[in-house]
Automatic annotation (TrEMBL):
The lineage of its organism: Bacteria, Pseudomonadati, Pseudomonadota, Betaproteobacteria, Neisseriales. This is Replication restart protein PriA. It is an enzyme of class 5 (isomerase). It comes from Iodobacter ciconiae. Component of the replication restart primosome. GO terms for cellular component: primosome complex. Residues 211-378 form the Helicase ATP-binding domain. The gene is priA. Initiates the restart of stalled replication forks, which reloads the replicative helicase on sites other than the origin of replication. Recognizes and binds to abandoned replication forks and remodels them to uncover a helicase loading site. Promotes assembly of the primosome at these replication forks.
Amino acid sequence: MTGVLKKCCYVSVALDVPLTRLFEYRCIEASLPKIGARVIVPFGPRRLAGVVLGVASETQFDSSKIRPVVALPNDMPPLPEDVLALGRFCAEYYGHPLGQVLATALPVALRQPKVFVPPEPSGVYQATDLNALLQSLSARATAQKQLALMLAQPMARAELAAASPSASKWLKNWMEAGWVAFTETLPDVIPLPAGAAEANAEQAAAIAAIDGSHAAFAAFLLFGITGSGKTEVYLQTIAACLARGQQALVLVPEINLTPQLEARFRARFPTARIVALHSGLSDKERVLNWLSASRGEAHIVLGTRLAVFTPMPRLGMIVVDEEHDASFKQQEGLRYSARDAAVYRAHQRQVPIVLGSATPALETWHNARSGRYRLITLQHRAVGGAMPPIIEIIPMHRAKVVEGLHQATLNIMRDHLAAGQQVLVFINRRGYAPVLSCGECGWLGECKRCSAKLVLHLKERRLRCHHCGDEQMIPTACPDCGNQDIRPLGQGTQRIEAALETLFPDAKILRIDRDNTRRKGSLQEMLRQVSAGEANLLVGTQMMAKGHDFPALNLVVVLNADAGLFSVDFRGEERMYAQLLQVAGRAGRAGTQGRVLIQTGYHDHPFYGQLLAQDYAAFADAQLDERRSMQLPPFAAYALLRAEAEEGALAKAFLQQLQALLADAAGVQMFDPIAATMQRKAGMERWQLLVMSDTRHPLVNALKRIAPMLEVRNNKVRCILDVDPIEM
Ligand code: ADP
Ligand code: ZN
Ligand code: ZN
């Protein structure tokens, strides 16, 4: 026999480079990769990992110049069609190179140009006799006990190893003793679990509606206040989904993915494999969890926005909890909305999606009102007798005020503390004071690199910029006039904490904000202290507004609420309403009726009337009327081109060039470029160009024209495209 020439094939590959085009490589027919497979290819002098998007036996290029694929790692299932489709959608809609979109979809370990070797065969450990195992442990073996408790659910070795370095030794012993078993694969079908609350009538209707459309796309808005039983609806519809042998994807805001929530899911589904995907995991944990989902092993993926791209071969439903939350919109790189991407994906896969919120985004509310989404309302709190909190306004004008706290506020706080209840003082400003000022000449401490004031951090003895991170020593005298009496203006969490220490010397005060929760686990420890009643007077920022359940907390005091009323952003009031209602929801969850005090300098503002009514539907309808009459989103499609340069004139000129390119695009309107609200940030001058159209299509089409301009590397000006911006 004569030697057979190995037949060549060509693959087009999406690479993680800022270019829209694909790249061709050659490989032999015998080892042809699948569409969606990961390949390692040469790129100039480097190697890169990419995703195969096309395979052909011919090429239109000069075949002698096409370089061969370096390796086919075969270390993950090829990306399935629905993830590729979502990638193409995001690339087109957000004007971002497809290779970079797909890189975003992959965990970091699978973006590297080397083969990923999983540490062991997949499979899980689970206790077969948890009681016997626990009884065998001495009281002081806390680490072993913690590991044993994890084994109440199926757990991968990597997860257990992350919890304890001695995990493999103990697992071996426990398996020998017959208390723990290893299973290579779990069944796809998880029978309906016990432990579900009996659904009330509203919940039952919601569950029936969602289950009823399990074999087709349908988008539901599950609208209900905190405590109305939305999570219970998710759990019961997911149970039905798992019982059909399907997987469920649950997206939550980063800050809500608490151990409490995860524990609630694990407690409900003790035999299911639940994996988390969020930025708090190590790269290794993330890739293992991702692989577990994409191999179809994990039944439930509980993740933050990045999890929307997770391949799930048996995906049966998607939940987006707190769908209005701003963290679903990525604010760098691929500026996608994970909520919108999730809706696209559900449509692609023909599965139902449930968007849950007490304060839906107006975009979502509009979709529900116009019938594109099905509106399901939970009117009442799920636990019998629990009532929504009473909201009261404390007008601040001509008031007796101590350190930003009204005398009436202080009196009510004192009563609650005396009655043994917890009180939360909510102020969305960390640091000691938002600015340092000179009473003589009016000097204000400002960041040299940003158009922003420097925040006083007294404990660290620093002035710190919250936008670029710059720090300075606290000056001992005014830099302009030499006056030594320079003073902090306004209040931040640290100053309120200090004031409360004087005002309530007997209270156990705990401050919770980003400054004192940076260390891993410190937030969890503080939340534990709150739950255990080791603190009764809490000072917190928006970190405290979300997700956590504190049964003894029944008074919330909101300081400095007014900021959203005069925002340049048309979403100011929408955000403020959502935030205030959310923080109000912290008050009085168990049995007692909560009370919320809002200190304001503008008690006559119609906004507060709408807030006191606690009728988000009415508020949202009124806002939509306003948006409609002013042609604002969701009644118009917006894209922002944001340019920055050391010299503002360059940024502006660049945007003017783009404006000229778009001038005759059909159906598109523009204003002239304007300076950004925060004109200087980290030493760069920032300008923006707003591009609008009545519907999305003309806008997306027009923006394609300028993509080449954004691709060209321009050293002086950095310009990015933000489609559906949520911050103006
Ligand atoms: P949400 O997600 O809307 O804040 P949850 O689902 O967390 O509401 O429900 C609030 C509380 O009420 C939880 O403690 C939950 O266990 C309980 N709960 C929910 N539904 C029911 C029900 N049908 N019967 C009894 N308790 C319920
Ligand atoms: Zn001065
Ligand atoms: Zn700064």
